[in-house]
Amino acid sequence: MINYPNGKKAVEQRQKFVEKANLGSSLEDDLNKTNLFYRQHGVALIYKKPTPIQIVKVEYPARSKAKIVEAYYKQASTTDYNGVYKGFAIDFEAKSTKNKTRIPLKTIHEHQIEHLRQVSYHKGHAYLIIRFSVYDETYLLEFESFERYLNEVKMRSIPYEWIKENAYLCKTTFLKPCDYIGGIEASLQKKGVMTHE
Known about the structure:
Distance between the termini: 43 Å
Shape: globular
Oligomer: single chain
Radius of gyration: 20 Å
Structural class: alpha+beta
CATH architecture: 3-Layer(aba) Sandwich
Strand content: 25-35%
Number of strands: 10
Helix content: 25-40%
Number of helices: 6
CATH topology: Trna Endonuclease, Chain: A, domain 1
CATH class: Alpha Beta
Number of domains: 1
Mean pLDDT: 85
């Protein structure tokens, strides 16, 4: 082990680097990297959904360089991600907040809530993935728990402490910076759904 002039050891320096490695990355980047790992290792098949746009105006500054200069969303997007895990349909919306104590409900739009409600109604498994960036903590929340909260509490936000008690903390590793599959597995077991190998 190497001792540096400030008295710190090399191992301590390396651990701090690993712990802070993902602090600057966005939730979407972390999910995309994690989903790529899942696909490459046969864990799950989850993709980010593209948002359909209507292209209105294109400029051609050079023959081989087309540039979209005006476009509009064709329709309100549903949720961010969907796919399949062990034969189960998975759908989730991902949200991030810098707030230390709560996530405002205005960040989760009504059409997204309705979409998750329909996924759940049709026996799919719907979730919210919520990141508290100030703590570098990401949680997987079952849609059913979220909807119960909406119906019972009548607040404009969800407290951080409530999320900690009612959602699954996602593990963070270098290759899976938002490893939410453990939470989905625990959720399916809690619901009494038999996961099959």
